[in-house]
Amino acid sequence: MEAMNCPRCGKVFVKIVEPVCDACVKAAEQIFEQVREYVRENPDKKIADVAKECKVTPARVLQYIRDGRIEASGGMQGEVLCSKCSKPIIIGRMCEKCILETNFKVNDMKYEASIKNKGRVFTTRRT
Ligand SMILES: [Zn+2]
Ligand SMILES: [Zn+2]
């Protein structure tokens, strides 16, 4: 256990899980709740409006959506784009199609790697 200064408020705390102190973790959660509530009650607002109203940066609001914590509302239509094909999405980083494609590729790569690794193990054992 190491004591350190909270990078957010400067308070000395012991780092356990979160990189900021308890008070800041709670504060961050409260901000998130506030943003989520606001989006739910004002589905016609754009990201910039939500950010302004909740006193956070638009990047923070976008991050919540990217992290899958809130869904983009109707007012945010076209503001959240798939990081691969730039198609509008409402939550996460990629559209369903790109997620599927990426998963297939990852699985293919894993499969190839596992074959290669098996081969390598086999040859090293034999030599
Ligand atoms: Zn703090
Ligand atoms: Zn896409």
What would your notes on this structure say?
The protein folds into two domains: 3-94, no CATH class; 95-127. The chain is 54% helix and 5% strand. It is built from four helices and two strands. It has a two-stranded antiparallel ribbon with strand order 1-2. Strand 1 and strand 2 form a beta hairpin. Helix 1 (22-41) crosses helix 2 (47-54) and helix 2 packs across helix 3 (58-66). The N and C termini lie far apart (47 Å). One zinc ion binds at residues 82, 84-85, 87, 94-95, 97-98. Residues 82, 84-85, 87, 94-95, 97-98 line the site of one zinc ion.
Short description:
The chain is mainly alpha-helical. Helix content is 54%, strand content 5%.
What secondary-structure arrangement, pairings included, does this model have?
Elements: E1 3-5, E2 12-14, H1 22-41, H2 47-54, H3 58-66, H4 96-126
Antiparallel strand pairs: 1-2
Helix pairs in contact: 1-2, 2-3
The structure holds zinc ion (2 copies).
One zinc ion is lined by residues 82, 84-85, 87, 94-95, 97-98.
Summary keywords:
127 residues; mainly alpha; two-stranded antiparallel ribbon; 2 strands; 54% helix; flat; binds zinc ion
Secondary-structure-derived class: mainly alpha
Bound ligands, named by name, code or SMILES: zinc ion
Largest sheet: 2 strands, antiparallel
User: What form results from the Cα inertia axes?
Assistant: flat
Count of distinct structural domains = 2
Helix content: 40-55%
Strand content: under 5%
